[in-house]
Amino acid sequence: MSATMPPALQLEALSYAYARGRPALQDVSFSVPPGSFTALLGPNGAGKTTLLSLVTRLFQAPGGRVLVCGHDLRQAPRAALGAMGVVFQQLTLDLDLTVIQNLRYSALLHGLSGTLARTRIEEALARAGLEERGRTMVRALSGGMRRRLEIARGLLHEPRLLVLDEPTVGLDVDSRREIVAEVHAFCREKGLAVLWTTHLIDEVWPEDRLVVLHGGRVRAAGSVREVMGKANAGSVGEAFGALTRGKAA
Amino acid sequence: MKPWALCFAGILWRELLRFLQQRGRFLAALVRPLVWLFIFAAGFRSILGVSIQPPYQTYMLYEVYITPGLCGMILLFSGMQSSLSMVYDREMGSMRVLLVSPLPRWFLLLSKLVAGVLVAALQVYVFLVIAWFWEIEPPLPGYLTLLPALLVAGLMLGALGLLLSSFIRQLENFAGVMNFVIFPMFFASSALYPLWRVKEASPLLHAIAAANPFTHAVELIRFALYAQLDLGSLVAVLGWTVLFTAVALWGYNPARGFVALTGKAGPPG
């Protein structure tokens, strides 16, 4: 990617605390370069979902900045959100609508209509391997198919950044492996930047970038090799264990 | 302008699809006022005579009197139901999809409210068609002038539902809302009996009913159904709508919004 392009996602000194709770995030800063697959690795309760809620504007951080492709989420939310596709951990499809109806709704929310919307929907169906299931109710789809559909929906408006919150939760081993491989392939082939949160180390590939979050703080960030070097570890698993041992806060 | 129109069209289209596909909801929404009309009103017909009062030109049957109140009831249930489901139900997931789309949050929420009101207005018209066969026959222009009244009143009730669900955690289930909001609002209003009759029974209840936003909604609908404008009710409903909407949108602010308030952002990760 060009060196002049701003990072697909840049977080600067983000902090967040729930009411009457301890801080969920403290001074979190890292960036996702254009076209990179960045895994945000952290144990349960590390603050990954809170972080994604801030990145997607569901929550607003009292301080710090979120920049999406150079657009400040607070100053220019329309440009920032328009450049981002989101896949939540929780299922967000309408179970009682068909596959195509779900995609069409999302297309309209992003201002796509007519031929362009139809073309994008066809592409999304092909990407999700659901060409034959367009008129099927989402309720009748398997967990793996629903996930693929959500990812395809997140890419409908051709964002430059796709953020996914533990997208393989609840899937069987084969579906999990396939989805991890597919998103890595999009990233490589289409130059899409990906922020992928997970607590599963086998979803991190050697060429990925890695951010380790623990206790609401970034414990390490960089290429997989750099993070392993920082933890003085021989594998991602060892590095993760070393960086998330004990309380981080 | 186009993305805004498309976004609203998408929200409305989805609301309609969901409504039509959930046949149980459609049926329940229709059966509720019809039970009141066919059974309750028929039973009270001989007990409660209603004398001439605007907008009616003559003595009327009790069924005729309560029809606007039942239209309001449809809006009330629908407004509370859709606003609550916006927050607490399975719709939580789809609300996120809506909220991470690029247009401003106030526009997305208002579109959702308006779309819900239009679907509720559709239910009102289906109810009125059935009521027509029960000899509830308002003048034809009334069906036209009713629409804006339904929109304003529906928006007020939808915004009230959103406001309640933003701030009151105890109202998580619909039964609670029925007991503490819907029933008191409905019964302490002019939906079932004229305010002057309430005054005879209890001045305090009359004062409460006269201040009740639902009374203003019902009176606005009542006059509109007879192609007349009740300016006082319109001003009151508009005032309540602005107030409820402003507070509801403020409550939806992500910095202190209900997602953070209720801690229902999803499982921590």
UniProtKB/TrEMBL annotation, chain A:
The keyword Nucleotide-binding applies. The keyword Transport applies. It comes from the Bacteria. One of its GO terms (molecular function) is ATP binding. Belongs to the ABC transporter superfamily. PANTHER family: ABC TRANSPORTER ATP-BINDING PROTEIN, ABC TRANSPORTER ATP-BINDING PROTEIN NATA. It comes from Marinimicrococcus flavescens. Signal peptide: none annotated. Residues 9-240 form the ABC transporter domain. Gene3D superfamilies: P-loop containing nucleotide triphosphate hydrolases (3.40.50.300). Keywords: ATP-binding, Nodulation, Nucleotide-binding, Transport. NCBIfam families: PQQ_ABC_ATP. This is ABC transporter ATP-binding protein. SUPFAM superfamilies: P-loop containing nucleoside triphosphate hydrolases.
TrEMBL record, chain B:
It holds the Pfam family ABC2_membrane. Belongs to the ABC-2 integral membrane protein family. GO terms for molecular function: ABC-type transporter activity. Keywords: Cell membrane, Membrane, Transmembrane, Transmembrane helix, Transport. It is found in: Cell inner membrane; Membrane. The chain crosses the membrane at residues 26-44, 64-88, 109-134, 140-164, 176-196, 231-252. Residues 24-255 form the ABC transmembrane type-2 domain. It is a multi-pass membrane protein. It comes from Marinimicrococcus flavescens. PANTHER family: TRANSPORT PERMEASE PROTEIN, TRANSPORT PERMEASE YVFS-RELATED. GO terms for cellular component: ATP-binding cassette (ABC) transporter complex. This is Transport permease protein.
